[in-house]
Design brief:
With 136 residues, the protein is mainly alpha-helical. The chain contains four helices and no strands.
Length: 136
């Protein structure tokens, strides 16, 4: 065998080995892609199940509005939350306890307590709580 024949044989063998490695890498990639597709499909099914549960709960809440918690618009206290908080505060419940039980911020309940106390004291004064409007 001549040198050129030996070089050609080595080139042929390395070419065959390279093709084998490429094929092996490609099959591993296809296996990885198939596993990822399976994971994506499983996650998609879980998301759809969760969405169906949320939709069912939402329908139940729409059918029975009394079961919906009192979530005020724009972060303000709703009328029923305010009334419940005032009732609890007037009965001697601490603002922290009231806030925890109604799920409201403590600072908001403390402010409500101060306003309620101010308005309650203004009711017993001879003068009105606000500035008088003079009629001309």
């Amino acid at each position: 065998m001549t040198i050129t024949g030996a070089i050609a044989a080595v080139g042929l063998i390395s070419g065959i080995l390279s093709l084998g490695l490429i094929w092996r890498r490609r099959s591993a990639t296809f296996t990885g892609v198939a596993a990822l597709k399976g994971e994506i499909e499983r996650t998609r099914r879980e998301c759809l199940e969760q969405m169906a549960l949320v939709a069912g709960k939402l329908e139940g809440m729409e059918r029975n509005p009394r079961s919906v918690p009192d979530f005020p618009a724009e972060g303000r206290l709703g009328i029923s939350s305010r009334a419940r908080a005032l009732r609890m505060l007037r009965s001697g419940t601490a603002p922290e306890t009231t806030a925890i039980e109604l799920g409201l911020p403590v600072a908001e309940v403390r402010l409500l307590e101060k306003v309620g106390n101010f308005l309650a004291s203004a009711e017993y004064l001879d003068e009105p709580a606000g500035p008088e409007l003079s009629r001309s």
